[in-house]
Amino acid sequence: MKLNQKGVTLVELLAALVLVSIVATIAWTALSIGFKHTAAETSKTQLQQDANLIVTKLTNEHRRNDYYYLQMNAGHLEIKTCNDQTSPAIAPCGTFVRLTDANFKYTGTINGIQFASWNAATKIDPKNKHVELVLNVADPVKPTRSVEVKTTLTRILTN
């Protein structure tokens, strides 16, 4: 006499559970790696956007003003723009304005001089000389995440 045996054995059930566990582990690992990569790339994109914004601001001021001053103050790059005025009643220079964001660490050089070595404001005369700029922007939490932008600030030399 043969009994009708339908169903799953314990061994088959355990084998199925092991296979599902392996697939779930692989999927979770792939997702985890993807999330970490996305976070790193988002951070790097933010650094690049911040560096591009600073270079754009410097380029605009370089082309617009007769001269300007740059200084490092508490780890931040600041600019004071100046124009030659014919009227002595108008002050030729404004006040220092911060160019950099509080969230990142900034280093670099202008015409080969390190920002950190500046002990006073550095005068930039765009009518007489182009400016070689190297700007490094780093994440203070993960210093390995950083970007470097090398550019030349130019305009028509008139002197």
Strand content: 25-35%
Total domains: 1
Tally of helical segments? 1
Q: Show unreliable segments.
A: none
Instruction: Summarize the main sheet.
Output: 4 strands, antiparallel
Q: What is the C-alpha radius of gyration, as a whole number of Å?
A: 29 Å
What does this entry look like structurally?
The chain is of the alpha+beta class and 159 residues long. It has one domain (10-153). 35% of the residues lie in helices and 27% in strands. The chain has one helix at residues 10-64, and strands spanning 67-73, 76-82, 97-98, 105-110, 113-114, 122-124, 131-138, 146-153. The strands form 2 sheets. Strands 3-2-1-6 form a 4-stranded antiparallel β-sheet, with no helix packed on it. Strands 5-4-7-8 form a 4-stranded antiparallel β-sheet, with helices on one face. A hairpin with a 2-residue loop joins strand 4 and strand 5. The protein starts with 9 loop residues before the first helix and ends in a 6-residue tail after the last strand. The model has no long low-confidence stretch (mean pLDDT 87).
